[in-house]
Design brief:
The protein has eleven helices and 14 strands. It has about 375 residues and is α/β, with parallel strands linked by helices. It folds into two domains: about 80 residues, no CATH class; about 280 residues, TIM Barrel.
Length: about 375
Amino acid sequence: MRQIYLRPCAFIETPIGFDGQAARLAGTMVYFSAVEVIETAGGKRASKAFVSVKDLDTHLSSLPTELAVKARSQFANITSPRPALRMGTRNILLDQPRVMGILNCTPDSFSDGGKLGDNPEALAQIGGDMAAAGAAIIDVGGESTRPGAPLVWEGDEIKRVQPVVERLANAGHAVSIDTRKAAVMEAALQSGAMMINDISALLFDDRSLEVAKVSDCPIVLMHAPSQSSDPHKSDGYHDVLFDVFDWLEERVEALVAAGISRERLLVDPGIGFGKSLSDNLTLVNNLSLFHGIGCPVLFGASRKRMIGALSNEAHADARLGGSIFLAMKAVEQGAHIVRVHDVPETVQAIHVWRGLRDAALTAG
């Protein structure tokens, strides 16, 4: 079976003066002038072509009808702006990159060792500081999902996150709950959380779909190779880029068919989850492909193992430089949200990027 994929590339600083030769990427401040058109057969790459935006329609007209229809649908997704995220009374616009701050309420977090995992007031203060530093969303989690981490009983997870979510929500912050358990979702939503971020894409818990459906909040669907207690369990990939794309696309379509509006769904390729260093690098280098699904793209590689693997096994707390570079690599490919531990530094990097982009658009 043949499949087709479009990856936006040949990014330019401004479209001014290039009428008909460039397109805007998913409503962001990123513009591209070409796409890589990739065809696969039997799960393997069969052909690829570098095609300018100007010549794309002509190129697609030469393809079999079924492939051309699918490619045009992907291009429409790639160039369509994403609606604002409705989080309670807040509308978070996605026309520029947003930062999601990671707030771990666990005693065994890989990134910080869970230093404040039993102090909800201190944790809420850290979350508030992230928001003050420019994080649009605070993502609260009560279960470590690092390789080898034990499964946490939902009652314990609720005890960890509920008081933190309640404090942050009462302070007026936009809060996401990072969990794969329906009971935790319910407790967090009742306490003021306004987004669900599920590493299992609502597949780990049979009740999650219904909880998410009635919540009317945005839902982040992340790719992991397994939805068992160990999300890192993997049998490998035919081609990690297209395997992950297809899985997320199918998951989005399944939830839309179940009655959840596409406008509520975000996709995350799941960097580090059951993927080798080579797999992760492939996903990062080709992140723009995922705009073809038609949902906002969330990217999270902050302090992850791949950074240590590329920098003399640097410990998690010594991976700031790599974390910022990966976040900005994602931003330059149109990522709508970057999920990070180091909020002030990432926000500053984005501000500088935004200044450069504004200057380019103003000067033409």
